[in-house]
Amino acid sequence: MASSETAQPAIAPLRYDPSGVMIEKTGLSPSDLEALAPQLEAARSEVLADLELWHSGKEVPAEKEPLDAGFTDLPDRLLKAYEEEGDESELGQIIAAAKRISSKVDRVVSLGIGGSYMGARALMEACCHPYYNELSRKARGGHPRIYFEGNNVDNDATQGLFDLLGREGTADSVEDQWGIVVISKSGGTLETAVAFRQFLSLLWQSCGRDGDCVAELVVPVTGEGGKLHQLVTELGCPDTFFIPDGVGGRFSIFTAVGLLPAALMGIDIVKLLQGARFMNQLFQTKSPGENPVLDYVGVCHAMEKKHGADIRLLSTWGKGLEAAGMWYDQLLSESLGKEEQGAMPLTVVNTRDLHSRGQQHQEGKRDKLITNVIVEQWKRDRLAVGHSDYNQDQLNDLAAKTLPEIMTAAIQGTNTAYHEDGRPTADLIMPILDEATMGQYFQMMMLATVVEGRLIDINPYGQPGVEAYKKHMKSNLSS
Ligand code: PA5
Fold this sequence. Notes:
Blueprint: E1 15-17, H1 30-56, H2 74-85, H3 90-104, E2 107-111, H4 118-127, E3 145-149, H5 155-164, E4 178-184, H6 190-206, H7 211-217, E5 218-222, H8 227-235, E6 241-242, H9 256-264, H10 269-285, H11 292-307, E7 311-317, H12 322-336, E8 344-350, H13 358-363, E9 368-377, H14 403-420, E10 425-432, H15 435-456, H16 466-478
Parallel strand pairs: 2-3, 2-4, 4-5, 5-6, 7-8, 7-9, 9-10
Antiparallel strand pairs: 1-10
Helix pairs in contact: 1-11, 1-15, 2-10, 3-9, 4-9, 4-12, 10-15, 11-15, 12-15
């Protein structure tokens, strides 16, 4: 691939604006944040030193284990390899596999849980048509419909999806054929493994028990040597992607875990990585005060320590960011919710949740920091309320107002109401909901999480607490 295709394009930057936190008594002052700058810079240096240590292959000191710092410069490395090696590179191969599968099937079941699922779903909601799976194949640009399963053990949901999938000898018709992307780093997660067995059994039927057909329609993304790797080797799947060592599950969106499903949906994964690489540049070069990662961490940390704001609301405005918020819920919870520390993340979708959670955010306990996620530019033309001969709803006065104008009035009105009651807010401003923006968002939040971990002396990698439930579930199943 020619280098000009991946050279860093002009990217509209995602911006972090903490001015709504600077309110009297219950908020922060600029000097609070200035005082934190040396600690933030030290935490950044530690994150960059972690990356160097990880690359060096030297022994990792016990207190740093596990050290999954490999995500940090992954976008830069993938893009560089794509420029140098083109189709032979990891990115080139992901794009080729997505093209191959798209040409053969109209539905893909993507199996995975936690970090092996949430990022791809976030990308679908943010970057695809809001009703993507309902569109015709043509309107989807020839890309398959995507269904996320293997993220639960829900009897009815599993069989509900079975109902949509062809069973008998459908392999000859693209419209009727379907495939599986199975994603599990460990290769042993029960929810995903059970779902894979069940959907694979259905795929055998659909392929008329032709082993070559099955192997071609299953694309695994896994760690080397695990049970899933062994199984798909036996199946003979031609495209198997490996999740590199040193990239943890919830940090794996820029591996095939996130990139393959994204490419299958027609998302431009090169632009996505360019957005992430751009965030890396900001993170490494900008000082506190103009560094979105360090500023976000500084405000969150200071609000928690000074005002006990240990609930972090990601208040998304619009419908495209709910799953991106849930991706962050997992990232923060599993990374910093350790040793009785770590703030509690909560995603809300407004204006919807103003009618459910809004009351509590306005008048409940003063334990929340609200970060608004605001998209500046909508993708479609502005839709007006419209005039009607039936004005019983009395909306004709608003006939010329558009949905974006109503949204802006809601955002401003809500935040004015919060500030009047001394409830601090910050804004994360996204220029437009596209690949370059989402790349910046994911990388910003991953970097912020590890920086905060180093700041509060919590290892952001690993999730030892998740093992406890698994142990009991296993013993319940064997009794
Ligand atoms: O962040 C993590 O590591 C976890 O959330 C994992 O992604 C999740 O448990 C799924 O694990 P696996 O990919 O091994 O099936």
